[in-house]
Amino acid sequence: MHIPRLKVWKLREPDVKQEFARLVTERKDEVFEADSVESKWNAMKEVWQKAKEQVCGWTKGPLRHSETWWWNNEVAIAVEEKRGCYEIWHKTKTASDRNKYKEARRNARKNVALAQEKTRQELVNEMKSTAGKKNVYTVAKQMEKSRQDVVEVNCVKDTNGRVLVEKDQVMGNGESIWKNC
Prior knowledge:
Elements: H1 14-26, H2 28-33, H3 37-56, H4 73-92, H5 95-128, H6 130-134, H7 136-144, E1 156-157, E2 163-164, H8 167-180
Antiparallel strand pairs: 1-2
Helix pairs in contact: 1-3, 4-5
């Protein structure tokens, strides 16, 4: 879940800083009218927060389904179709609509797996080239955010130094690596 935040980094801009100062100055009387220290602090805090909110604005947050390194048009179409089928099935609750949804869900999963495998193969081929070897860290940084929750290993080098990306090869090689340790 994403929590919207105030864009306080905008206060570094000179015109935004001036507008913030103007809004705080306009409402300074509210702070001086307060009688106790606690109420002065609360009034000052409220004045600053309202001014920040007016001047800086709030973040919208990330996209509902953020694009990842493997996302493509086929995946987007399949996911939208699955979503539409789910909404229809959720409203009607009929068996035929449920079957359509299950088929669309299978299709979406298949498209995601194909897109991931295709992109992984392209990355491996790119990394094998001399230009790709220079971009290893750039690609790793791009993929890092989307791979934080991945538990399994997607690629590994075998004893000959070849990169293995096929799931059965990776799993078989990984077991032999651990046995040799």
